[in-house]
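Sample A.
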Amino acid sequence: MQLPAQAYNKGEIYNLSVKRGTLTQEERFIIKDHMVQTIKMLSSLPFPEELKNVPNIAGNHHEQLDGTGYPRGLKREQLSVQDRILAIADVFEALTAADRPYKVAKTLSESLKILAFMVKDEHLDGTLFKLFVESKAYLSYAEKHLKPEQIDPINTHKLYEIAGLNRSEAFAT
């Protein structure tokens, strides 16, 4: 992650000059640091051989296929299938979560539309997104964890169109 120019800046003009969102570069760095701390903590644990990749999988879920994610700025070819699956699951859960005091939970159709745009923008894996949609994994999760009013009809054709995916493509990672 790129370090901000200073650890913090509490100047009023500086804080009011944020161009996008409400966080300064310093505040955004502090929030993003949770991935670095995740990797450090999990790497210190004695995982058995079959779970040795858990620190990287957990630590890479904010990476994006185009290399603009964090903390390492990894690209598609540097991310495992598990990394890319967790990225989709994390975004989907965050969008649909009803327990966040700073936002209203989104419906299935709104959440999947956002994921489709993230696929289009090379942030999320298109093949795995298609698998998520085709398998209806989103619906299994929704039926267990979402409020009934969040569960609405899904137009898969429109999702694939937004994402720039061909419905007939074979699943390949």
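Sample B.
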Amino acid sequence: MLTHRQMLDRGAVSYGPRTALVDASGRRITYTDLDRMTDALAAGLLGAGARPGETSVWLSGNCLEYLIAYFATAKAGLAFSPLNYWLRPAELEGLVDLVAPSVVFAGREWTDVLDAMPAVGAARSRVVLGGAATGWTGWDEVLTGPGSLDGVPDDENALHEIVFTSGTTGASKGVMRSQRGRILDSVFSALAFEVRRSENLVFCGPQFHIGGASVPNQVLVQGGTATIVAFEPEVVGAAIAGGASYMIGVPAHYHLLFDSGVLEKIDTTRMRGCYVGGSVASKALFGSISDHFPAADLVQGYGSTESGPHTLALRGQDFLDHYGTLGLPVPGTEVRVVDPAEAARELPAGEIGELLVRSDSVMSGYFRRDDLTAAVLSADGWLRTGDLVSRDEQGFFTLAGRAKEMIISGGENVYPKEVEDVLSEHPAVAEVAVIGIPDPVYEERVLALVRRSGDATGTTGEELRQFVRARLAGFKTPKDVHFVDDFPRTGMGKIAKGELAQQYGTVFDA
């Protein structure tokens, strides 16, 4: 059985006094403590009325408590759904309504927002971190509350994770995964990325992403240490000075870390691996990583919330020999390159097609959206990624394009249609196209190209930016708004976004 209860029980026996988790304040939690605390929280949730098979949501900044809640909900038989704290209240409410949680975890700064949501009011338990709030139970109170795990099913195939991602339509989709899927992904990705049990892995990405659990689990399944911090150059620098040996970040993290100068007085020679996620970074950035961390391997991977997330991996000498590729499949992963219009037709090496993935860690589907699941996941388990790739004769994959038009800004996924739909609500906007353009720090930034309505000549780009900012998360808000008289068109009259990307891709370079 591959369950988190068994993983942590055995971890306590095998690695008891070793440090499992560290935070920015220096707080340390051993494997013995992690097992004990997650047992206690799980029992406290059940004692407060939660029942196996129900759901929970989490809304807070990065902290060790995230992983304690993650594992505790698994032990209690609850599904766990982390929410994006950058979303606006209306965006959050739609996700909360869909999950219909029995348990709500939140940092004190988010309790007022959540209190306005009927689905939160209907929850059996509301647990607050970092303060007190009327109608909410304190974290420590639940941790020490009455309850028992006796009789709770320990099912490796039961739903545990509901992690939200956005689709090409902008509609949020909850990706479902079992405990078995997560643990297998952790083991296989640790093998592929050569993450060892002696590792001190520093994680600074938002925990509401799939990586919030999948990345720390790579060391927690084998007795290593995960250092959990929120990204600030000084904080990450302190973690590196404290002995971190493996760093996970998107290109923006590395740019900001290097530009800050915090590494100038720090011994960086203990860093043995630097993973760059989010998208294919520039050669200049990889050179800068090698300059700042001379003993570290360069590491890169490919995946998605739906696929595991670890699907392809590249590290060390393979990275140097096959620079520009996405790497080889992670152990336990099957991959195919097929004709996008005819998925049954597999393509030979060298031809560009859609990447299909099958493994034990591929999602089981989209939460309460069987229609969307059927569109991407076949009955025999093959996931259509929507990404276009080619495979060379040695089996290494190269990304050719994103069939979904997704923009990656600072490691965050932005889907143009969602932003276009909001801008279209403004009376000054007659027509709009949103594209991603290169950015030296954030990989890509969002550009909105707007054709004004006839009587709106005085409307400014900043006015439109603020209009979006009030309705969508900041990372989705266009960094630039450019007004046009008309758009290039396809033969069917649609806006030709490919031409726009070529035309505007260098106009706004910093």
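B remarks: The chain is about 30% helix and 25% strand. Residues 236 and 382 are 38 Å apart (CA to CA).
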